[in-house]
Amino acid sequence: MGEFKVHRVRFFDYMPSAIRAMAFNHRTERLAVARSDGAVEIFNFTDSYYQEKVIPGRDGRAVEALCWVGQRLFSAGLNGEITEYDLENLRPQYIVEAYGGPIWTISCNSQGTHLAVGCEDGTVKLFEILKEKIQFQRNLDRQKSRIISLCWHPSGAQIAAGMMDMIKIFDTETGRATHRLLVERGVGTSKTREVVVWSVAFLSDNTIVSGDSAGKVQIWDGSMGTLVRTHLVTKWDVLALSVSQDESSLIAGTSEGTVVQFQFLSSTVDRQDPEWVRTRTFKSHSHDVRALVLTDTAVVSGGMDTQLSVRPLLDKVEKNTQEAAQRKIAFPHRNLVSCAKKAGLLLFQFPDHLELWRLGESDGNGKPGDSLPLKRKPEKLLQLKRKGEDHICCSAVSPCGGWLVYSTVSSVRLYKLQYSNNSVSITKVSKLPRELQSVHQLCFSADSSRLFAASSQSSVVVVALNQLECKYLQTLRHKSGSRQPVHLLFPSEDGRWLATANTDCQIHVYNLQKMKLHCAVPVHSSCPTAIAIHPTSSRLVSVHADQQIFEFSLLQQEYTEWSRKLQKQGLHSVWLKRDTPVTSVGFSPRNPTHILLNDTFMFCIIDQSLPLPESRTLLLNQTVLRSLPGPERARQSHAFKICKNFQNVLSVALLDDLSLAVVERPLLDVMAQLPAPVRQKKFAT
Amino acid sequence: MAALYEGYTLCGLVPDQNLSSSGIQGIEEERDSDHVVVTDSARSVTLYKVSDQKLLGSWTVKQGQTLTCSAVFNPQTKEYVAVSDNKVIRIWKEEDVLLDKAFKATVSSDIWMIHCVHGGEPVVLFKRGAVRLLDSLLAAPQQTIEEVLAQEENIRWSTNIVAERQQFVIFTTEQKGDHFLYLQRLNPNTLQRYRLEREEPGVSPLSFSTSYRDKHIHLLYLYPNGHVYQSVVSVQGLAAEEGAQALPLPRNLLLGLPVGDGLLEAASAMVLDEAHVAVVGVPHPSAGAGKDFLCIWNTNFQTLQAGKEMAGKIYGQLWSYSNKVFIPHGKTLSVIPFECPKSSLASALGKLRQAKTEESKAPAFVPSWNNILHGEKAQPSRTVETRKTRTTRKTQSTPSLTIDQVLELIKTAPIEEVQKEVEGLLARADLQDLQPSVGQLASTLVSRSLADPAFYAPSTLSQLVHTRYLCHSVCPDLVLLALEKKDYFLCQLCLQFFPDIPEAVTCACLKTFISMPDVDAEKASLEPDSVSFMETLISRERGQVGLQNGFSSTSCEEDGSNDVSGHQTRTQAKKKAAPPELICPVGLHKAVLLNEVLLTAYSETFLLPHLKDLSSQHVVLFLQYLKFLYLKYSQDDSLHMPGCRSPSLAQVMDWVCLMLDAHFTVLVMTPEAKGLLLSLHNFVKSQVRLVSELGKIEVSLQELKKTKVKKDVGQYSIEVIELF
């Protein structure tokens, strides 16, 4: 079937940043995750936890808390600013200074009319939420110490605020503090250190739950201001709390990486007085759990170890199904690697710089399974630091390797690269057309003569490139009315087509010769995660977050025979059970029936000429096939040829010399760069 | 295990406003251990009867005067002695109502303390270090008192003991951060000065405590960092050279108490007996800080034996008279009785083992054969109901006796009465409470039995063993007594329940068991579980080699035939007649007892020399029995039932090796042992073969592991993969 030379690349030192805060929108089932570099990511929980949107961070913008108000997303950070995000253009919409020093927390009342922020100077500030903006309304009584955590009572009449050594309850009408709940300090040395109430929750029955730096989860009676129960959960800090919507369950995240669940249960069957009982402990993380969400079915947690963990509660989901499996999202669902296929270059995108590498070379061939001797080592040609404070949101290198482009939320920069022997010279293209603004996806055409940039309102800006000139040609738009950002762009090899996909799950195909919309692919309910157009037969292959694969003929404007067959027979259950999305689709010039796909844990070639796997056949049959003699092998093989040699794959690209460039980022390497976790007493240490 | 019992309040306290001191200056023993004299830090002396918590008398000095040292009672003259305003000695009797009218004498120098111990005369210690007997001082009150201590040297603590009919005053001083110990002997007077080693700078001892034993004075002192040191001073070797340089006092660290963080402030450690120390004001290692505990530590094993939380502030004061601790805390002075039985490592650790065996025991509500065969007293029931019913039955018949009464009774009473009372006691009390006294009961019973050959209470002893609070070191003569009395059931129980039987005793048991006639053994009634195990083992030999899941294992016999000739015919012949080596060479009960020996823990080095005492025919018999077990086991794996007390194959093999090691030369010379040795040689061969096969497997498994090892992929490589 096929031998491949594989460039196995592990020198992309991609380091995800720690998860700082999370907010879950129960209506739309979107999870917003803020990372310590200021980036905000939106995951769609109805669509296989697909990472729909990424709003890049900015130096000095540390998001400390996130809050959904309806469909609007607000954040607040230690720079003292409240930010509302523009989720269509993936950028902050406006920023309001709260004038209270660093902001530790933000919380919205259940009516969605007011935001409260807790500031370093000891004030709780109320902002009125208006259309398109927020407006400062007033301060609650100023306190002596900083406000670390806030929670509104569901009625909106009271706010509980966690501070140093105490919790205060404010009446939102009068702004007066009505109760002061003193939180006991830890024992031992920590007795002299003030205790930080990292998180509070205010339940509708006036119960207040607090998590603090002494490792306690405490249940208070908010109407009387008395302590009801103390649960010592950890020796370290309880950093986050989250209560389920029906208030029957709550979870607490600790510095040890554990999440502890409490449930509101009667202690015995016939008793009628339920109390908060500690029930389960989950250990999904190696480091601090900084952010938590308890959805109806799952514990979602994130923290210092950068991974987002979704652990379904087994009493809420059906056992032994796909939704009962724990998921850990360690890598972004978009491509951070761009490959110059002709030149054999790889461009790595970091938040603050780009790296351009030339792949190594080897001579001779080897048997399958061999490592070939290197004739030339891979070489870092270029390290380009970004300008300005905004982080890089997308980048691309042209297939010929002659152009390099990157974009931040504020600007686009295009460079011309020239190679002479061992040196690279880089020239910035100074005058860019002003249409190149607010770009969230970039790519070059196969012949490197065009630059495509996905811009606001799902439009695509086409720019022509030639020697030191850069000319705006056209803005391609569709008429579906969707304003969602384009997250995938694919120009066909022959230069005829450009396919775009947006987070409304729409795929549009433009005819580049006529510079207008050619067709729209029927919308599938799940978001496309990778699209590609076959170089010769003009068929568009799309893979979606729910792992479905479609093939659409652009000429006939209908699904192809193979695609119908695949849909009729259904995909193999093992294929559907994978929990990372396919992030790239490619085609092999050697064999037009081959489609190359990859996700984080596998690399796959679909041979359309072979029969599809039956539901009872083994999907991962490569090792079986290897051991079989030729004719038998042909009889047993099926269309899905899955190779699991490579793990934690960030990108797979087929170069023009038919070798593969596989970029791996082993999780162990990521872990090794994390700070040491809190010390835990192990036996005999 | 030492135990602290429920305490009671003796009196209330009037502590300082800032709670820095308890308001008690001292507590001294009065005429007997049940009377104490409490001196408060202001003006009054109070006499209490402790067990009744009753105030018997109280005396107060006039307003404006203060008592400066605690009052003592002189049992010889039945007088109380106290000092007011440092210089005025006051002496009165119990009948005196007003202190002011009592005898007074003013001396010329400040008094630090008056000490009086039973068996000694009252001694006056002056603040400057001089010591006088009270009588000689009163003879001439205004005599000049010399200065013993240097400038800026002050007494910190003092005590008085009588040792070897000599009276000693011991006191410690501090001078510019250095601490000294003075040992003043009276009649003839000698003074010895020692220098205490320095702990961390700026840290001085919090409390001292002395005890006298084995002609040495043991000084125990506690530092704020939780270190408890002990220094030992010989009484006899007291050098007469006076005024010489202070000798350095060697010390050893007895305990390192957990202090949490920071240093101790008010704490005190006091010797209770040679192995126990009472400590107050030191945090309990498993309770959080901020709680004050009275703890008893075992210094031999460094284990915490008992702890009791004390409410209120602890002042670091502690007194102890005859098994009672007096401790002021909060606003009360509490009396807490304690008990420190002789400690042994086994009893300290034994709890673990007991907990483990507990699981394998049938639950209490299942009727046990034990109860039926040996009467219910053999196994004290743990369920509450039965205890209650028995208690009521007992209380109806006879008034109940306390432990002390029972102990007295054991020494004299006839056997039936002793049995009845001990059983009654065991049935009445909660076993947990009884734990310290079970050892006392047993050792008293044993010593009575040893002294009086007619006296022997087998059922009572077995009942005591069954409580599982006994161990060999608590009652070392029990096993040997049982052997002597041929009480094999008790022997079996001891072997089962004692975690610490010495190898010599194990070997003595083995010797007795192997040499006793089978008739004797069959008479003994043994533990039914182990008997039934042996029964099944032996019955299988007769009723064919059982078919298991339709498979009859004969591999072992084939193995056995390989040795001598290896002829097929012989094997077949063997199969027909029951093979001789599959007949148990000893009787049922004897085998049961031998199994108990096999099951005991031992260490080879200690066991080997004792094994050599066995005679050669006993060795041969024992080896035959071991061989029988080995063959049975290698034939049928199902013999091992979990929870059933049966020797494991490994234990059997170990004993075979031990016996051979101990007696090999003798056995080689013994003609009747030849066949046995040959077949044992065969075992070894088969074991060697097994091991070499395992070795081969190990190699191939290792190969498998090697192939699994992932190549270390560096930062970059070019590989070739193939997809099919």
Automatic annotation (TrEMBL), chain A:
Which Pfam families does the record associate with it? WD40
A cellular-component GO term for this protein: small-subunit processome
Gene Ontology terms: biological process = maturation of SSU-rRNA from tricistronic rRNA transcript (SSU-rRNA, 5.8S rRNA, LSU-rRNA)
Cite the GO molecular-function annotations of the record: RNA binding
Show the SUPFAM superfamilies listed in the entry.
WD40 repeat-like (SSF50978)
Q: What is this protein called?
A: U3 small nucleolar RNA-associated protein 4 homolog
Taxonomic lineage of the native organism? Eukaryota, Metazoa, Chordata, Craniata, Vertebrata
UniProtKB/TrEMBL annotation, chain B:
Give start-end positions of Basic and acidic residues composition bias: 378-388
For this UniProt record, the keywords arranged alphabetically read as follows: Activator, Nucleus, rRNA processing, Transcription, Transcription regulation
Query: Is-annotated flag, keyword Cell membrane?
Result: no
Region named Disordered: 378-397
- Domain (Nucleolar protein 11 N-terminal) ranges: 1-338
Which InterPro entries does the protein's record reference? NOL11 (IPR042859), Nol11_C (IPR048897), NOL11_N (IPR012584), WD40_repeat_dom_sf (IPR036322)
Q: Where in the cell is it found?
A: Nucleus, Nucleolus
Protein name, entry field: Nucleolar protein 11
Please report the organism this UniProt entry assigns to the protein: Stegastes partitus (bicolor damselfish)
The organism's lineage is: Eukaryota, Metazoa, Chordata, Craniata, Vertebrata
